[in-house]
Backbone:
């Protein structure tokens, strides 16, 4: 009986994990920014509300799809960042999709200039714009991930980095620093207590004396860090600081 019960629990947990990784939404639109700049974007959403895809400006000097990653909030709201290959964020995207119609804004983080998405029409999902939410093989994690966002108050790029070191099969030690909010959130895994991957994800508790805990979910081109403990546990870092964010793989 105990063996049957354990098997049932493990099967249920596996199903929940598979559901989280499953693509639950796909969206694709094309139109303009403020009625002037042609734009096309397409993205997918998985069961964890992680969103990823590409944005494309066909009339740019050197047009090429740019990766966008973020999160779905509530039912119809999506908040994504536009990432260059080196991890710099070059656009902040806030979208609402309702009854098949897209509205929202694109903001330049350096100038804070905001442009509205206009005349956005639904299109067939473009080839090559998806596929970013494939779970990463635990044996192929990168050694370094990072992001940078221009801070208008400090007038400089600020961001974070994740450095990983193998510690055995499906185990890694980490060293993380995030200074995007102006305060430093940093920490590393304890000696003898590496993070243990289950599939493409790990959860690590008690990073600091306040009991901070976070999850890391790995994809081939980036890792998503999310705080899973109460907000009080970030007090050891300073106000409004955490590991949370999307970090782009910059070193295999």
Residues:
């Amino acid at each position: 009986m105990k063996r049957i019960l354990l098997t049932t629990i493990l099967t249920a947990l596996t199903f929940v994990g598979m559901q989280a990784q499953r693509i639950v939404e796909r969206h694709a639109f094309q139109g303009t920014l403020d009625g002037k700049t042609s734009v096309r974007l397409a993205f997918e959403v998985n069961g964890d509300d992680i969103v990823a895809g590409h944005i494309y400006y066909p009339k740019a000097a050197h047009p090429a799809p740019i990766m966008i990653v973020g999160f779905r909030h509530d039912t119809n709201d999506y908040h994504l960042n536009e990432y260059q290959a080196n991890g710099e964020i070059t656009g902040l995207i806030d979208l609402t999709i309702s009854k098949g119609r897209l509205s929202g804004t694109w903001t330049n983080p350096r100038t804070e200039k905001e442009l509205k998405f206009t005349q956005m029409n639904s299109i067939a999902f473009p080839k090559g714009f998806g596929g970013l939410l494939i779970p990463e093989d635990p044996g192929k994690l990168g050694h370094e991930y990072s992001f940078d966002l221009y801070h208008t108050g400090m007038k400089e790029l600020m961001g974070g980095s994740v450095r990983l070191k193998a510690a055995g099969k499906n185990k890694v030690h980490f060293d993380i620093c995030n200074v995007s909010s102006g305060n430093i959130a940093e920490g590393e895994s304890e000696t003898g207590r590496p993070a243990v991957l289950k599939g493409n994800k790990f959860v690590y508790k008690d990073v600091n004396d306040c009991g901070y805990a976070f999850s890391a979910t790995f994809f081939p081109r980036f890792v998503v860090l999310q705080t899973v403990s109460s907000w009080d546990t970030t007090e050891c870092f300073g106000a409004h600081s955490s590991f949370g964010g999307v970090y782009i793989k910059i070193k295999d």
Remarks:
- The two ends are 46 Å apart (CA to CA).
- The mean pLDDT is 91.
- The longest strand covers residues 23-33.
